[in-house]
Amino acid sequence: MDILVIGAGPTGLTAANALAYKGMNCRIVERKNAPSELSRAVGIMPATIEALGELGAADPLLAEAMPLKKMHILRDERTLVYLDSSGNEFRKRVPLGLPQNRTEGILRDVLSGKGVEVEYGLSVTGISTTQDSALVSFSNNTSDSFDWVIAADGIQSATREQLKIPYPGIDLPSKWSIADVDLAGDFDPEEITLDLYGPDNQFSLILPIEKHRARIASSTEDALSAIKLPLDITNVRRTAAFKISIRQAESYRKGRILLAGDAAHCHSPVGGKGMNLGMADAIAAAMAITNGSVDEYSRLRHAAGKAVVKKTELARHLISSANPMAKSLLWLSFKAISSIPAVHRAFMKQWTAI
Predict the structure, then answer these.
(1) I want to staple 20 with a disulfide (CB 3.0 to 4.6 A). Which of 68, 97, 114, 180 is the partner?
(2) Which CATH number is 2-38+100-170+246-319 given?
(3) Of 36, 257, 7, 38, which Cα lies nearest the Cα of 122?
(4) 202-210 and 213-218: which strand pairing?
């Protein structure tokens, strides 16, 4: 069986690793000429680490990533909630902070150890499918037939567009922003800090991704200017502003081609689910191909994606809403999480699942 993976981001690399682990004949192509050096997504959930364990990628990720054991939530720089999982049942089931380029690097190294190399600088220029195979044309003027294709080529997926799979949804009008910075001074590399402020419930998030490096995210157009808390920033590696799209493909499959990751869905970064959902798609797609359950792939993963988008949107509305009732509900939720053990457990299970 010959399988092609399109795209060498976390989703594509996870799919290729899962296929290689099952002994499948797999190629993975990436239109970019070299691996990305951008940090992009930075949160890895425990469920993702567990899923990567069999593929040989969990240990190197655990060795390098920051275990985010603490969460500090403030309102106008005053503490609402402080959670510390260092000494409780969740100490080994906390999210990890790691730049996406390092996540990709580790997955790429594990894949290389299985004898599969990413073919960089090679894009798909044409793709079609029948009931039995997919015919793919490449930018080097070659073409090949594959039993299956996993398209993990991102939000602007050329595969999805060529197959004319609808990608309905909305684009939010406001811009959010990020900054990746190096830090010195009193910085806890295991603590996520969320500061809500102002009448419009704007927020800033500080998420460690290395011992002296953090991702700052903001619901404003300038993450650095939005920071109200004291930070000793020694270097700014990157800043970017972006708009949020909330979309989901109507189907994750057409013929012999499966969509996974951002090619199939996109949503706000609140909660850090996006990359993890894509990697779960990847493993599900690879397993469906190898065990003959592809007919169920689109239905099951579409349902999983829909559920994550719904929860993410609820969280985004609660965090960013200026409505007094929403603010009160958010405050009560935080207090319940911090003071009622059962609510704390439910929150951690929901947050760290995919």
Answers:
(1) 114
(2) 3.50.50.60
(3) 7
(4) antiparallel
